[in-house]
Amino acid sequence: MPEEPEREEGLEGEEGDASLSKEGRKPRARKRSSASEGILQPVKLCKAELYKPPTNEELSRLKETENLFHSNLLRLQVEELLKEVTLKEKRRQKIDSFLHEINALLSKIPEAPERDITDQSWLPKGLKVPLLQLPFVVKGKFRFLPPAEVKVVGSYLLGTCIKPEVNVDVALVMPREVFQDKDNLNQRYHRKRALYLAHVAHHLAKKKLFGSVKFAYMNGNHFKPIVLLQPQGKDAKTVTVRLYACPAQDVFKPSRLHPNKNNVRTAWFTEKDSPVTGAIEPPTPHYNNSILWDLNMASNLVFLSEAASGFQGMRDGVCLLKVWLHQRELDKGLGCFNGFLASMLVGYLLAGNKINKVMSGYQVLRNALHFLATTDLTTSGINLSKNMDGTLPSLSDFHKAFQVVFVDPSGRVNLCADMTASTYKQIQLEAKRSMEILDDKTVDGFQLVFMTHKPLIRTFDHVFHLRHVSKLQAACKKMKLLNELMDHGGNYVAATLPFLLRLLERGLGRRIVLLTHTLPQTPPWSISEDPPKHRDIGSLSFGLLLSLDFATSILERGPEADRPEAVEFRQFWGPRSELRRFQDGAICEAVLWDAPNVSQKRLIPEQIIRHLLQLHMDIPDSSICYTGALLESVIKMGREPAGTGEEAMVSLIRSYDDLSRKLWNLEGLPLTVTSVQGAHPALRYTDVFPPVPVNPDYAYHARIKDCESLLPLAEKPCPAYIAPMKVLCHMEGSGQWPQDKEAIKRIKAAFQLQLAELLKQQHQLLCRPAPTHTDVFKDGYVFRLQVAYHREPQILKEVVTPEGMLKYQDNPESQQLELETQHLPFLTSSLHGLQQQHPAFSGTSRLAKRWISAQLLSDSLSEECIDLVAASLFLSPAPFTAPSSPQVGFLHFLHLLTTFDWKNSPLIVNLNGDLKDTDYVEIQNHFVATRLQLPVMFIATPRDQRNSVWTKEKPSAQILQRLLVLALESLRVLEEQLMDPLGSQDIKMVFRPPLDFYDVLIHLNPKQIPRHLEAVDKPVMSFSRGMIKSDAVVKTLSFPVVDYDPVQCYLQELQEAFSEFALFFYDKYGGEVIGVLWKPSAFEPQPFKVSNMRGRMMSSVGTDPLTVPNVQAILEDFGILGEGLVKSVEARTEKWSI
Amino acid sequence: MATPGKRPERSGSPAAPLGFAVIPVKFSEKHQSPHFLYVKEHKVREDKDHNRPQNNTLFVLNVPPYCTEECLSRLFSGFGSVQSVELCEKPMLGEKKKPPKTKFFGATKPLGFQVAYVVFKSPAGVQAAKSVSTDEPLVISSNKHPVQTGIQKWIANYAALIVNPVELKTEVDAFMQAYDQKIAKEEAKAEKEDGVPDEEGWVKVTRKGRRPGLPRTEAANLRALEREKRKRARKELLNFYAWQHHETKREHIAQLRKKFEEDKQKIALMRAQRKFRPY
Fold first, then answer.
1. Number of domains into which chain A is organized
2. What angle do helix axes A471-479 and A604-617 make, rounded to 10 degrees?
3. Domain that holds residue B278
4. Tell me, what's the pLDDT at A938?
5. Is residue A1041 domain-resident?
6. So what's the ipTM on this one?
7. A1039: which of A154, A637, B57, B199 is 20 to 30 A away, CA to CA?
8. pLDDT of residue A783
9. pLDDT of res. A25
């Protein structure tokens, strides 16, 4: 390394500590000031600091981060996270002393005399055995003896215990004398275990030491109750001690518990007296496994502590894995992947030399994730046992008995016995996604992988709930699952779940990428209550991740009719299967689903699920609550079966394509048309309510004869709103164009006239020219053609400096024009392309717009800005997958709004994938350097990396703040509603704005609101708005009323007149009320100024000549300006005073 | 200058500021709360605009949005016959030069509160307006002279936006004819001057003519600079001397340090925002 001490202070070179601490101090002082503002500032370091000779330590640290992590950031973030979740020393001490006290108490529990297991009269009153004892009668005798040994096991000992739910596991070893021969049979072991714990709990409950003593099921397993102990008083939250009971070593002979062996007799379980002689008893692998688990608890712990000794990286890695699992809701419930499994997995990797003891926590995590992502434990299980003894069950034995296989060091226990294949697939998918995210340099991997919660409803495209799981009991009978039921001790949920999943997976086939379910859980219960029944897990929820290409296909083609598989196909689909002849001549079995439009097609999975569950499991429609498209009702229009507008947009785009072809081929123009570009939201599939073909009723309107145009009549209800669709028509560049902005305007007007003339002559289209545009009435749509000249913005920018130099300077006029003629068409075509890749984009963006508008904020945010935010959900969906249904897209939208750090990071929307890694860095740097000059909401796109053109004007900081608050609340309410199958599910609730927030409400007369039918709650009474059915054949001779919305005219006047006093809020889709919010700053008395006397008056109080707003008059003005439109002005004077 | 306006008797009606008189106006008879027009003689030193004669002109502040020029002229004709009324968004000097009259390409009308210059035929009108009693507000829209607002007005506006293509065409043609003539004249002049030295002997080089020069634009200048820079960079040897090698290494470490500092700052900020609570 170069040593150039002559330029530095030189002396510090050796004293690494001193220099480090000095270095540390200075930036910290700067940091404090920037943190207080909450905005990142560009770092400025002085030369001396940057170039001083590095110490060895510093050098190695810098090198390491450069090579191992993408940046220091990730490393520092991981360190901070670990600091946050690991236990502090003080807390550990408290916990230790608590454990000591418990230990002392446990040894003092008195013995109890021997009795029959079924004789439970010795238990004190008010104590219930924490096990469902069905059938009740078993042989055997039980006596209580104090535990032979009490030891702390699990994460606390390994140091992988993490906040916030600190659990310390304590194992009580039940002495040999408690057990008898054959206790492995017929749940006797489990009964004894439960009785043992009941007795312990009873004695501990009497002690003052504990705040609460409760029972819970270990990982949701009904065989395994545990006792939960919490300390008294304010320490209750510090720790939960969980007491497990396990038998002493060698109580049971392991070979009896081989997965092929039977330990629950059918005759006993079905309570029939005589066993059917000669019948082979079915194996009970899950039952056996539950006993083996307890037997091997201690030895597994030994294995783990060996692995963890001298391996800090393992501790950190397991902590990270636990956080990762927790964020994905995979670490709790029956069949979960808990911290214990995570530790065992790391142990496995260590044993297989996939990792070594010098690795850091982050490396351990990466290796574990990589292993999970690439290894399919459902087909190729893993085994920790080194013992090649023939007596041990083989992996194939395990695979036959269990769905997921991970065998412990003893070679007998399957650690993943309860896990379903679906859950493992989910883990695999998550691991794969996380690895991708961590490798992606353009995103903040840490935030997405560790800090983002992924609840079911937000992760999966469609979610459905089984309202009453008790229906599964009947399904057991229908599917003849007695053996499985026996194996799971009567837990019909656990018994049927794998079959249900397999059924649906087969039925959905290629339509889904993943089908998964919530892990059944029961909350802890008090020791005086009966243990929860199997049905008490509430409702079971399932999530579907749809595959884009196949999810919406309406046909399920089966085998040819004469093939043997056809019978099976018919059986599987039942009456829905029918014979069809296909175009290739084959006659096949097939299922055709009924779906007339796109929104219904998205729900084909629902049809399949309902049909299959009904057919094969007798689960009625009423107990399935399917939430895939509940939100779509707010963007539906028209008569039933109402679609969500996709068809309408396709047909109007077809009409637009035809128009653009006609424009290209127009003969007789002096310059040719070089390109035709759409600029209306409907042409990029994001118009909330796309225009529909109209056919005006002449009798309803007034007419201007010479212009062939219709006019609205004041006394009739306002005619239906017809949105003109803007289409830009770029003309060829030529030397003939004048180089003066006024002249260009005239030439463009001349082109408009000529376009109208030619379209009329050559294509018989009804046209109406204006100086800036030409309206064309075609197929019932109105297109607004706008001629553009590509050099015009340039000419507008021209400024000549005093030295005679020609300079190009942005000015509002040129920027506006650039926006309209360059950015908007580009955006429109990019998003049109995005929609082709992601069919759910349209619905997502429209739901988002509908919601923002419903919250009366549509005027405060540009439509394009919302489109871009919606597009970003599809282009960088991490940590989720790109939404395939509008509902989940909308949830992502709300989630992004609330969690994105608008203050300190730019939202980068990589349209068409044009941005490279270096661009990201550049955008980021530019953003940090000029943060204060940039808009509050900064959105960068490939064509607009520095200015964020769509958010320049709006939203303001206050509006954004308000939007975030609303989004947070809406997301909470909506997710609660969607996840609660028993609730009312009135999802429109989040689309109804809170009105108590406004100072003045202006109520409008529905008669004059042209878009009244688009309101969230469809109006009961509607007006005839001068349109006749579009299929009636009438030759149109007059131009309909276009772009006439009285409410918008009114709002514009209000804005112009009173924008200094108030903000106006309105739902442009049929809102009946305008909310007015006074600006507090305008209400402060101000000194008289000629330039500032709009709507103000001299204050009569005080002697100084001060002015205040003339509020009474302004309130009257609200009514005057909206004559005929305003129904009433409601001033809520209690909310403000002057 | 003038005495302050009379203090109105009605409670809540405020006084006028120094130099101004106050005239309450309301929209129609049935409305209660008036707006207050603040009026004053128009007196500006440098404004020699003959459209606004100093003595005859009344400056009116705070004209409500629904007031039109006709309507103001009617209101003020009570004080003396009105010659003309001019509404503007904010007070300004008399217009220097009127843009050519155009029906289709003009700016849109302002909609908010405005100021007005009311020119009376005689100075007496101004005085009368200033000394008016403020007891009874003037009424803007009466049965005889209704002022359109709301639906009526918007429909009228909509109708006004529909243009007659023939009229538009004539206007465009007329403008373009004038424009072409102007350009032709300029070009002829430029051609005449091409290559001819002026009185000090300078010859003007334009983009046209026999020897076109570089366009004098900022972009062209920048481009030239850029080209120079590239040329220089090409000549330079980067890894020639030992110190250059050291320098790059030092630079690398400095970069890493800088990045480290930036990251530390980010972390501190996140810690402050409690970003490390995973749940």
1. 3
2. 70
3. 238-279
4. 93
5. yes
6. 0.84
7. A637
8. 93
9. 38
